[in-house]
Amino acid sequence: MIFYNFKIAWRFLLRTKVFTIVNIIGLALGFAGFVLASLYINHEQSYDSWNPHYKDIYLVGLTNQGKTTDLTSVSLGPAIKAQLPEVVKMARVNSFPYEIPFSSDEDVFFIKHWIGADVSFAEMFGIKTPGFDLDSISGQAVFFRPDVAQKLFPNTSNIQDEWVVMGSKDSGFPLQLSGATAPAPGLSNIEFECIAFVKELGADLPNNESVQTFIQVKAGTNIDELTAHINDIFTNSISKKTENINSSIAKSSIYLDPLKNLHLRPTHGSSTGYKIVIALGALSVIILLLAGINFANLMLVLAQKRAKEIGMKKIFGVTRSKLIIQFFSEVFVQCFIAAGIAVFIVSITINILVKNFQYDLSAFGFNESVLFQLFIAVILTSVVSGLYPAFILSQSESIKIIKGRYQNSHRTQYFRNLLLVFQFVIAFGFISVMIVIHKQMDFIETADRGFNVDQVVYIKNQAILNKATDFITFRNRMKAIPGVESVTVATTVPGGHLPKAYDFQYLDRMFKFDHIGVDFEYFETMGMKVLAGRAFSQEFPTDTINAAVLNEAAVKELGLKDPIGTIIRGCNTEFKVIGVIKDSKTLGFEELINPTIYSINNNCQIPKVEILAKISSGNMQATLAALATQWKSINKLDGDYFIYEFVNQKYATLYAKQEQLQRAFTGFTILIILVALMGLFNMAAYSISIRQKEVGIRKVLGASSQEILFLLNKPFLRIICLSILISTPIAWWLANRWLQDFAYRVDIQWWFFALGAVLSLLIAFITVSIQAVKATYLNPVDVLYEE
């Protein structure tokens, strides 16, 4: 009986092969989108999930007036561990924010992620050190990641007691290695190429030094109560000892951020990664839902062609339950075929994810997890697609079915239209949101950032140039090279590590300002506009001692009308304001511009190592070649390697995740439109096929081709217009929610949705017209001869 049912189903599919092929392709696209989304989502959600204490590890951070940091005093961790029994382990980690060359006799490797940590950090995060007992550490033990060890010592299997030079080959610091770490079991939020372990990280650091503090708690611990206890410790034991009672740190409060949130939605940082995961998951489910709706619609519109088969089976005693099983079997077979095609599509397009998301997905191919997810998707899609049609087709009376009266059911007609409305509500909504996303990304690309770093290069350097006198030789030698317009050095660069915030005092009030240590020609190199006063100038010797420049946000925070000459105290200096510059979005468009103070005096003790050079247009390659040739003689402290980046490319990393979201959303929106159009194509083809006699009669009575074309499009265009009306407020809400992530964003305009409506109507009109045009050219004799 089962074989007989499949044989009948196969013959029916062959008779309706156009509809079937279109439907299976739609399902295949839906499954392919689902698999690609699953690969990415599995990758993103796997960070640290292999850690057996994954759910019990928390990062301790600070929040103050809506601003957060993931750094806390180095003395906080031991106080928490000593006073709270529910804290099982405590570990601290400190990061070195600069790129440093490590050299061996065989090769050199530029370390970007170099961290120091307590020994307990290794146990908490599953870092293994084969051949070395971390409990035996008396001073410092330095380990390389396995790939770094392989590059620097390609012929050595055990690098314990080997030596490398950190920094310049001639004047760098020799460092003895303790070995290489074992390969990590999986992806982790803890990135390092070099890690140095000590017994107690805080032993050689001042109490007010900031580090990342992690705690591991007992399973079942009440995190809200624990946070309150840690806040008490921070307030009573830490902030009063390390900071002035009026400082912003003393007024901060503790938050605990779960390890499971740190990659996708950290409290301190961007949650764009989480939004990408949610968006891809929702989009993949929506595509499958639309493909299932197409299938349900197809079964309903083709019901009349199967009327005699269904009626005869019921007359010969086939029960309703067996008919339902038959219909579900047919749906499952087609879904299974579509899934097979989807696997083939993904196998030849998986490089799209690698290219657009820049991830190695080799560990996330068609493994058991993905195949199981695909199988569940096939089952659920089969149920969604076949449930309503199976029950509707199997419940009708045999005589009515045989007489072919099924297609006249207003209930099924309304239901088919409802499904089509739902499809285009989704399609139009995503078209509109896609337009908003593209406008925001265009805004990021073209809006005034408050600085202009075209033709500006960032030269990587480890030489500390805190004093203006340290940099004079650099500037003069570099500017002597044709094409170099201006040169400066600073503590930070757009797209690099964030400026550090300090407490500054004006009159009797304390303010938290970002501080950026700079040198002469900084504002000229960065293309920043001076709005009042002046920039730093070598004509004023005191500029290196106590001069400061504020941005507009700092002036507003201080409430100054005439800031020039104002005295601000901070970093053990009385700064005199000499100028005001225009606000610059150096932190990107997601963050509000922070009040910032710039000074050449670097008593705040952040090393000035970021060398910036503005190069005239047309001379870039020749100038960079000359700099590379002379760099060793220019930078005698750290000139072994001339490595640079263009600042505008470095700045672009701030919104790289948003660009990923844009590409993902655009790709899935196109898939959604294609699937919806396939459903519309099938509906239009069937609807027009059963109206051929009507078309023939109208042509005999003198109707023109244009009138017939409009007549056949009219019911579908009404459905699309209804979909647009329903979808517009939903699309506006979704777009507005997404834009809330940006401190600086476009305004949602009415024409965004008007453009989406025009596009939706146009593609729907073209899809229906492909079938309708054929009907307008039919010979009335061919369709009316039976009458």
UniProtKB/TrEMBL annotation:
Pfam families: FtsX (PF02687), MacB_PCD (PF12704). It comes from the Bacteria. Keywords: Cell membrane, Membrane, Transmembrane, Transmembrane helix. Its main location: membrane. GO terms for molecular function: transmembrane transporter activity. Residues 20-232, 445-588 form the MacB-like periplasmic core domain. One of its GO terms (cellular component) is plasma membrane. It is a multi-pass membrane protein. This is Putative ABC transport system permease protein.
